[in-house]
From TrEMBL:
Classification lineage: Bacteria, Bacillati, Actinomycetota, Actinomycetes, Streptosporangiales
Organism: Sphaerisporangium krabiense
Location of the Inosine/uridine-preferring nucleoside hydrolase domain: 4-282
Assigned keywords, A-Z: Glycosidase, Hydrolase
Hydrolase keyword on record: yes
Official protein name in the record: Purine nucleosidase
Documented EC number(s): 3.2.2.1
Length: 309
């Protein structure tokens, strides 16, 4: 299995990504770092530890990472990040090191094999690059849920939350010399769970699946304001699924991605040069970023099967 470091702001859909990685034979989750986003970085670590304990995987190290300018979103993820469902505290403490230090350490332990899945603001990855500029040489791939290639943003007209909450960090992460794949709103918003899926999770005898069903309740309420029906966009689990290959990209052109970190109306925009997908468009030398625009199959049935197995 692929060694995976997950960087997240746990978070309802982050919890789905974590559960998918734990349930997937392709992945060996070797560490989790948390960042402020859906909730504060410390609360995100407590949430992650509680979910790991529930899954019987309390041994996975969890490190608290950076704060940033993001504002918690209780109307989407609840005041505690998990839809205000109270999980039993795990009894475990976060690692003594920071998330950036944990990532650097894991890049040495799993040199050349480590896959990084980043589903929150990119603050920890940027800090890790600042601490150790050689990090990209030891990382096999970076998969980021974030941005919007052709779709509108979700926190401003052009900015998606993970990028828009720390555009300076995102700019540095996309400028670094590693193979990086962006999984933007364009593809995550069309991969959804239905109310029927949620109910099946809630009615499951499996503790993780049941808890996810409960946690998803408030998130489903929020999506009524987006789609007019109770459902959930599978942002973070889609990035996790693509990183470990249980879902394949159909269209993922290699194109340059520039992050707008100016203070104008474009702040947080992911400027994806999609001319790169045109036939015969001259290859842009040195471009290492891919943008996933569609997948060969929908994620929901695969996710449900793995969570209920
Ligand atoms: C992204 O922002 C967070 O709210 C979600 O967990 C996801 O990572 C979607 O814009
Ligand atoms: Ca997230």
């Amino acid at each position: 299995p692929t060694p995976v470091y997950l960087d997240c702001d746990t978070g309802v859909d982050d919890a789905l990504a974590l559960a998918l990685l734990l349930a997937s034979p392709e992945a060996d989750l070797v560490g989790v770092g948390t960042v402020s986003g859906n909730t504060g970085a410390e609360q995100a670590a407590a949430n992650t530890l509680a979910l790991l304990a529930l899954a019987g995987r309390a041994g996975v190290p969890v490190a608290v990472g950076a704060g940033n300018a993001s504002v918690p979103v209780p109307h989407i993820h609840g005041a505690n990040g998990l839809g205000d469902v109270l999980l039993p505290a795990s009894g475990e403490s976060p690692a003594a090191e920071s998330a950036a230090e944990l990532l650097i350490g894991l890049s040495h332990t799993h040199a050349g094999r480590l896959h990084v899945v980043a589903v929150g603001p990119l603050t920890n990855l940027a800090t890790a690059l600042e601490l150790d500029g050689t990090l990209p040489e030891r990382v096999a791939s970076v998969t980021v849920m974030g941005g919007a290639a052709r779709s509108p943003g979700n926190i401003t007209a052009v900015a998606e939350a993970n990028i828009g909450n720390d555009p300076e960090a995102a700019r540095r992460v996309f400028a670094a010399p590693w193979d990086i794949t962006l999984v933007p709103l364009d593809v995550t918003l069309v991969n959804r769970l239905t109310e029927d899926d949620r109910r099946r999770l809630e009615e499951s005898g499996r503790p993780v699946a049941r808890t996810l069903g409960l946690i998803l309740n408030r998130y489903f309420d929020f999506y009524v304001s987006v789609y007019g029906l109770r459902c959930a966009a599978l942002h973070d689990p889609l990035a996790a699924a693509l990183a470990i290959g249980c879902v394949e990209p159909l269209l993922a052109p290699r194109v340059s991605v520039t992050i707008d970190d100016t203070h104008g109306p474009g702040r947080g925009q992911t400027i994806c040069d999609l001319r790169g997908q045109w036939r015969d468009y001259p290859e842009q030398p040195g471009v290492r970023s891919r943008v996933v625009l569609s997948t060969t199959q929908p994620l929901a049935p695969i996710l449900m099967e793995r969570l209920l197995a």
